[in-house]
Please model this.
Amino acid sequence: MIFGDIQVDVIEDGRFGLDGGAMFGIIPRPLWSRANPPDQANRIEMALRCLLVRDEERVILIDNGMGERWGERQRQQFALDRKRVPGLLANLNRLGVQRHDITDMVFTHFHFDHNGGTVMPDGTLTFPNAMHHGSQINYDHALDPSPKDAGSFRVEDREGLVVGQNLTLYDGPWRLTEYLDFLVVYGHTAGMNLPRIRSGGDTLLCCADLVPTSSHLHLPWVMGYDCLPVRTIEEKIDLLAQAHAGNWILAFEHDPEIDACRVVKDERGRYRRGEIIDLGGQGRSWE
Model:
């Protein structure tokens, strides 16, 4: 999709599954399962959707999925599948982008399904020429997580990253280019970055795990994984009000069906999915 002078494409890294109850917290299964049917293990299908942003000088990748450094037992646990939807590098290649071409690797946060592709199976960095960017608060939390979310961070996904050399960390909101800045939220995990692209008179926001799927547009539908679920709701209220007022496009990293949408309000004033936006481009190599 063209935004002014920049190109934005979805780059998926296959599909995986997480427990539906954990994904929707206190919401009863009969409600969330209508749009998110679970398998026999109660897992719902999840996308591993990353964004590739290109201008005349930079090739920016936002998140990198789960990567390949998983044993067979773990692959089965998370229903990790790249048969129907190929992996990240294959989809980059479909766009004519090699891993050495990436100039900037941006992490929304350091959970395994967002930065698991940082390191190759041989232990080398997947994007050796890239400056890696992330949140100082979230990086610090990854080094010393709470018992609740310790399983979301993996030491091996940070191997080879050295602060001040190939990793730059930021406190609070920050900007990478004139068209790409980052909001910071705290409900899901401390210091999660939300990339915002503003170009050509339009705005696209990558929701990361604040609104992981379009089903999570419902304000009380928050994940059991969230560290501060009440704060997640507060942050969603603020974000969706801005998105509705500005007619933003919201991109979902985990929705298995749609890339992005605009939001509308229904007759009761609740935010709902509006116009569906396809960001797929050539990165949707399975279609």
About this structure: The chain has one domain: 2-283.
